[in-house]
Amino acid sequence: MAKKTNPKLQAKVAPKPAIPNKTEKIKREKAKMKLSQTAIICIVLAGLSLLVYANSLKNDYALDDSVVTTKNTIVKQGFKGIPELFVTPRTKGISFNKSDNYRPLTLVMFAIEYQLFGENATVSHFFNIFFFAGCVVLLFLFLDKLFERKKTAVAFIAALLFALHPIHTEVVANVKSRDEIMCFFFGFLSLNIFIEYMEKGKAWRLAAGVLALFLGFLSKETVITFLAIVPIVFFFYRNTDKKRAVFMTIGTVLAAAVFIVIRTVILTKYDCNTTSYQFIDNALVGAPTIAIRIATALVILGMYLRLLVVPYPLNDDYCYNSIPFVGFGNIWVLLSLAIYVFMTIVALYRFIKDHKDPWAFGIMFFLVTLSLFSNIPFLIGSQMGERFVFFASVGFCLVVALAIEKWILGYGVKISDLLKNKLAIAILLPVCLVFSGLTIARNSDWKDNYTLFKADLPKSPNDSRLYFYVGDEMVETLYGQETDTVKKKQLIADCVPYLNKAIAIYPDYSDAHTELGKAYFLVHNYDSAITHFIDAMIKNPFQYITASNLYAACTNSGKYSDAIVAYKKATILNPDFADAFFYLGSSLVQTHQYDSAALYVGKALALNPKYPGAEMQLGVIYSQVSRFDLAEPHFLKAVEQNPTDVNAVNNVGVAYLNTGKVPQAIEMFKKTVAIDPKYVEGYSKMGRAYFQLKQYELTIDALNKALAIDPKDVKDIPYIALSYKALGKMDMAVKYEAVAQQYYHDFKL
After folding, report:
1. Interatomic CA distance for residues 556 and 562, integer angstroms
2. Chain centroid to CA 660: how far?
3. How far apart are CA 640 and CA 649, in angstroms?
4. Residue 659 has pLDDT above 50, yes or no
5. Using one digit for the tens of pLDDT, what is the confidence trace for 535-559?
6. Residues 609 and 583 sit within 8 Å (Cβ to Cβ)
7. CB burial string 40-62: b at 16+ within 10 A, e below
8. What is the Cα–Cα distance from 264 to 368, expressed in whole angstroms?
9. CA-to-CA distance for 358 and 346, rounded, in angstroms?
10. Distance CA 151, CA 525 (A)
């Protein structure tokens, strides 16, 4: 009988640890370090995006970049301006725009850039390229997730075409279009986060997606189309949880509603929420009939499709008369209409047949996002722009990728299979090379304004604004940069034909008249300058720059009567035109019509209580008729508005001096020389004030300081002589009397 072993006495023997195979260990470590396929694709797409736009880093600001950068006074405050950017319309920092927008986020980005890097175009271009690369990556990730990672090759091809497509150069190379880039970036970031929420849940993902979408709204309004895109995606394509789809839809509506409320409140506060657009920006506002407007808009929709297929030539401007008005009898209208109707029918048919059909999604995404810029249900600020298909091109690129999958690759192919498919490579490689070459070449056109406009004008010889752009750039930029007098005159001579051509195409082009007037002004041809300034104001009686230029031309030529007639007509056409009232009053001052002058300058102040120079001008008007009691409060307000304005402070002193407030006058004159120690008038008036108080030593001291600054200003020497005589210093009195008599033959002590 076997002896039993007491289990309590048995020792527990631990299993001997296995000695890991060194080769397997190395393999595991390498596997951990190895990038996933998705990461590699993202790196490749980002790298290509950076590569094709790298040459835009050397570009300067161009087109409307100055609106959000170099000329935007709020942006140029840096960090200090950020709070104001969130509570004001987009162009508040540069001008008043009755049809403004609310896009604070990108302006904040520019303010931060200005604070950290100063006025640096290279930095701004870098961030445009960087975030565009981010857009491409987010697009790939979204498409890959949308089709449940079963069409990775399709997602890659679509993102690749999107990254290289030349039609996007306007968005990436134009710093101002950061708003479009960030809108896309945050819009697709939200879609990616929403898909994660659909798959994994968690309320924080829902909140993060809504926040990202809201940031997209703060960048630009284009993501309003996501009110349709989000339900399409999450009720049909990624619809594993209906409850979550409802939450995402509600979140999208909530983000849009909050943005719309904020936007409405801010634009209403500044009276900038009208929807009136200028003819030169969108000629469709002046279409003879609604039918012609819609027909022309259909032609433009067809042009978008053509540029997506053949992205050449590209243009920065599509204004009047680059796209002539057409009716429904035009073949291109009918062809465009037929294509869009066909696309709509195909999308609906395939969608009804299969709610997860990728072709339907691509077409619907294209149609939905482009509808915002179609100018058919409502007009927008421009009739056409390549930037308007930035979102819509996603649908185009996706459909092309799906076509390659269907007819070349076959369904469900992997990335590795794509790289081995000779036919696919034979098609994609030339397309990518051509797209890349066109993109890089187009980036060079965006070097600066003059290069861009000169490059684009031959492509659109009937575009009035392009002729204006070229002439304007010659006057506003090249003329100022040129130092040779002969070359400066030649620049003006060269710019005149461009501006005349702009006016010939569009006779009511007020900006062209203004710039032509300025060109003539620079070469002292004041008669022609006045003619064009007046034409500009009559054609668009809200031209504040023109009003100022007209006054300057009249000042140099003395022809104030012509200006008075023009200003009066402008105030009748536009009773809210404060500038016209101000310069009308200023012109009347020159013709000594002081009562009328005070009336019109007063109207300018009533329209704008902080109108620059109006308080000062009213004070001057009352001073001219010796009503210093009325002048005094206006001069005081001028000082209150600008305490360092030495002339305003001096005028307060003069008003005090003429109303018997001599001690107060002296204090004002002391302030003038404290502000500007070389301000001759301050010492001069101070000396005369001391003379009235019979403080002769101080009189002599102040007037000698004036003479020390400007020895040729001898108007006060008699007061020095009189002061020495009053002090009993006859030798000095005689000395200065002799000097005084040299300049004032009839002066007697």
Report:
1. 13
2. 52
3. 10
4. yes
5. 888 787 666 678 878 888 888 888 8
6. no
7. ebbebbbebbbbbbebbbebbbb
8. 24
9. 12
10. 68
